[in-house]
């Protein structure tokens, strides 16, 4: 008789693998992270890895999907706050993301940025997934901007969708520069440029 599957163990193995994968991809890269390394850090047996994921690429996409879901949920928590005016919500969104980078000592960067730079032009499956992730995040920003006076941030010549795209492009560039500089200066400049206010995180 087959042994009943422990659903809690079954799911915890998957989550442990995804946790270990996200950490490994941020510490080094997707390409440099080996499955054996991920198994060792997660404490999950090898058979469980291939039960959940058909390949390393499938695993990487699952890590990226979970990361994006968490990022979109966090963004909505800021950008859909009914107690704040739209531009204040936008500022809170970027300040929260900046604080997260500070907690990581301005290293590792954003996983979505890292994977896009590393894999999007080499692996079509990743390219499609990552493009969808950027669209998901941009859509949440655009919904907030649709309620805003875009002249407050100097983007009144753009539609809310275009303004959201521009902001996310500029922010991802600042995050990439942050990794090169190892400090907060690129993010601080982004905040001063967009919101034209004193730096609240000095």
From TrEMBL:
The keyword Protein transport appears for this protein: no
GO molecular function terms noted in the UniProt entry: DNA binding
Highest taxon, organism lineage: Bacteria
Signal peptide range in chain numbering: none
Ranges where the HTH tetR-type domain occurs: 11-71
DNA-binding region per Swiss-Prot/TrEMBL record: 34-53
Keyword Nucleotide-binding recorded: no
Keyword line: DNA-binding, Transcription, Transcription regulation
Protein name: TetR family transcriptional regulatory protein
């Amino acid at each position: 008789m087959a042994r009943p599957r422990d659903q809690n163990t079954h799911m915890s193995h998957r989550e442990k693998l995804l946790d270990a994968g996200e950490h490994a991809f941020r510490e080094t890269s997707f390409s440099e992270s080996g499955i054996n390394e991920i198994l060792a850090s997660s404490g999950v047996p090898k058979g469980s890895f291939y039960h959940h994921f058909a390949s390393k690429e499938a695993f990487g996409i699952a890590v990226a999907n979970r990361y994006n879901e968490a990022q979109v949920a966090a963004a909505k928590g800021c950008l859909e706050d009914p107690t704040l005016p739209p531009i204040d919500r936008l500022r809170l969104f970027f300040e929260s993301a900046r604080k997260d980078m500070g907690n990581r000592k301005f290293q590792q960067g954003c996983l979505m940025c890292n994977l896009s730079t590393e894999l999007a032009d080499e692996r079509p499956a990743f390219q499609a997934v990552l493009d969808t992730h950027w669209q998901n995040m941009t859509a949440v920003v655009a919904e907030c901007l649709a309620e805003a006076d875009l002249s407050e941030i100097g983007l009144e010549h753009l539609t809310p969708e275009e303004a959201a795209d521009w902001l996310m492009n500029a922010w991802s560039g600042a995050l990439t520069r942050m990794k090169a500089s190892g400090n907060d200066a690129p993010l601080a400049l982004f905040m001063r440029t967009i919101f034209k206010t004193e730096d609240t995180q000095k």
